[in-house]
Amino acid sequence: MPSDTPQPAFVLVRPQMGENVGAAARAMWNFGLDRMRIVAPRDGWPNPKAVAMASGAGRLLDEAVLAQDLPEALEDCTFVFATTARPRELVKPVYSPEAAMKLAHEKIQAGEKVAVLFGPERAGLENDDIARANAIISVPVNPEFASLNLGQCVLLTAYEWQRQTQEVAEQVTELGKTDWATGKDVEALVSHYEDRLEEAGFFFPLTKAAGMKVVFRNMFSRMPLTRADVQMLHGVMRQMVRWRHSKDTGPDAETSDGAGSEEK
Known about the structure:
With 264 residues, this protein is of the alpha/beta class. It is 45% helix and 10% strand.
């Protein structure tokens, strides 16, 4: 059975290819929508090509409401949107997908039943179809190539529905098994590097050392470091010091005058 989540019905009007019906089902289920209605599909119903294309969303096809004509598909609806990219002579309010789904959400919350019409692949909805709608959804696409695939149009509208019904974070950073580094973590890291760089004579000349340390510390403050990053950077410096120490004390270490340990 369809889910209990309040949502609009997506009505595919006279779809021509089973593959596109399957793609529409997949797009709907990507965003938690499962109320599909199909009006007079050209190639009959059920359609095995639709099932193959649905790829995991076949339940929507099994539960889809099949209607012989558009009035039958809309008989329980109180507000209907029609999707079209072409200008029409019919006088109707035209909404962007975002604004349309915002209005749909408000109406459904108020107890209304909302439907969205999607037209056939070849030429889209006819004027007779659009005349039965209360408003139009128009996608701001390239005017030189305004035609959208049925699955694409369904996907875009379903995405806008989800944006109106769920909190969608604009940016999320996956931390995995670590956390953000604290001020204490970063302070210890900077001190570690400053101490070792001081020993290596990096902060030279002395008259510029203080300013160089400020720039160095500021560089670390700009980095969004995690604790794993801090641990790795500590390890990098420790290994460099070990390596340098082994070079200085090993059998090939240079003498103070720069010659090798072995006599030439």
